[in-house]
Amino acid sequence: MQRQTIGSLAVMLGPAVxxxxxxxxxxxxxxxxxxxxxxxxxxxxxxxxFIGLKNFFDIFSNTSIGxxxxxxxxxxxxxxxxxxxxxxxxSVGLGLLVHxxxxxGGVFLRTVLFxxxxxxxxxVALVFSKLYSPTxxxxxxxxxxxxxxxxxxxxxxxxxxxxxxxxxxxxxIGYFTVLVVAGLTQIPVSLYExxxxxxARADQKFRTITLPLLANTMLFASVIAIINAVQVFExxxxxxxxxxxNSTNVLTYHxxxxxxxxxxxGLGSAMAVTLxxxxxxxxxxxxxxxxxxxxxx
Amino acid sequence: MTTTLATTEPRSNERPRWNGISLSKAIxxxxxxxxxxxxxxxxxxxxxxxxxxxxxxxxxxxxxxxATPNLDAYRQVADVISVGRSFINSAIIAVFTTGAILVxxxxxxxxxxxxxxxxxxxLFSVLIATMFLPPIVTLIPLYRIxxxxxxxxxxxxxxxxxxxxxxxxxxMRQFIKGVPDELIDAARMDGAxxxxxxxxxxxxxxxxxxxxxxxxxxxYHWNSYLWPLTVLQGNTDxxxxxxxxxxxxxYNRGAMNTGLVMAGATLAVLPPLILxxxxxxxxxxxxxxxxxxx
Lengths: 297, 294
Description:
The complex is a heterodimer. Chain A has helices at about 5-35, 55-60, 65-100, 105-115, 120-130, 140-145, 160-185, 190-195, 200-215, 215-230, 235-240, 250-260, 265-295, and strands at about 35-40, 50. Chain A is mainly α. By secondary structure, chain B is mainly α. Chain B has two domains: about 30-75, no CATH class; about 80-290, Orthogonal Bundle (MetI-like fold), CATH 1.10.3720. In chain B, helix 5 (about 85-115) packs across helix 12 (about 205-225), helix 9 packs across helix 15 (about 260-295) and helix 10 (about 180-190) packs antiparallel against helix 11. The two termini of chain B are about 45 Å apart.
């Protein structure tokens, strides 16, 4: 400790704290402050006028501003929930396939899955927009081989949001699979051996050992999946522009459109604050849910 | 099933493999193949389509394999966007950001791992919390702040807000904790400065973590879209390849040539994918480190 002066501490922490402070913390506080202001993004912060909670009343009102925002909030909630609901079990299944040692090919599967995570979302969006094409796309053709009729995918308000969920899951599943594999390697083999001596079947071992001991990994994975899901932007910005009929208008896209393109910085900030609060609620709820499960284990 | 196993002669091993435990092996193998095919399919289709003729890309029902694979689409990409310029812009963004993140993360990670100071845990938690903040929450004021700094519509505007991040600090702290204090103390006895200790003693002993962070940062910033799109404001000279791709798409709406878009996408995908294929061990190790120890 003797040589670690305030000086060297400042040198070590200074750059990182300055960058994160100026470009994340200050903007975050400004977002909160701006949410109570009438402010155009094209002007300086000094032009902001305090209007209390008016922005929040507006975004939850029955005007077109309110309807668009509430629609985006609901779309994002559905999109996020579907993503998490699909990603968690799928990543456990794929994780078990990668982790098992009976059959070769686990590492190969991990490589293929994880390489999709390296692909820029923009390229994923472009490729899937063609895969989904109702006439020229291979997906409807493949479904046809199994006697399943053509799907509307991105072209109908009923299926567009779900189609983007699938695209998102495809891009991200490799990351979550590797997370699950990391969790699986932490489970002591001795637990399984003891269970086998007691005559436990494979499904019993999975339910009583694997799942409870994966609770922490699942909690972490859920939080990351939620944070990633609310960031969906490229497929919407590039392919659907929020449509058809606003069915894929999600928050990141909507907030950017209002706050940057329409320069309604105060309104956009109120939307961003609402998103931040919703995330906090969702994550606290998750901790409560998994915390209970973890205790039982 | 067990009786079949028992009565089979040891010589003919093949048939019993489909019984009992070996049946589950067959199922596992099938699932692995199936999952790999589904995962790889979009990328394979992307590359195949980039080699087709415009007619083949628009055929109904779709043509899977180009009759005579050709690189015309790639040549055409170069007519619509300046591929070289876009690649250089992407490289500048990714390389500068990655280099800075390595330096800032090593130093801050070292301080959090090895220094005792008041408020250390609070400051660390506050910094780490930013990892969970979606970028859209700060986008609007950030856009204005970068404008105040005079960095709008420039590559510097893309790079500067990303010179440090919480993930890097977290990863480095996790690994630097494992570096023995004796090593650091011995260097101090020899009169080494703290900066020298970070970069010449600590850094070499956490090389795998540095490699992982470098790859993650490079790929993340090569791929990033929302912030560059916002800050560059239509200044096409400064577009990285991922944003130039959207120009291909709007061009394609008139030209009706999907191969063109797929060729551009293939080009954009190559650098991160090649990096990953050669260095995947580091990626996997770092996820294990953050996911489990975190």
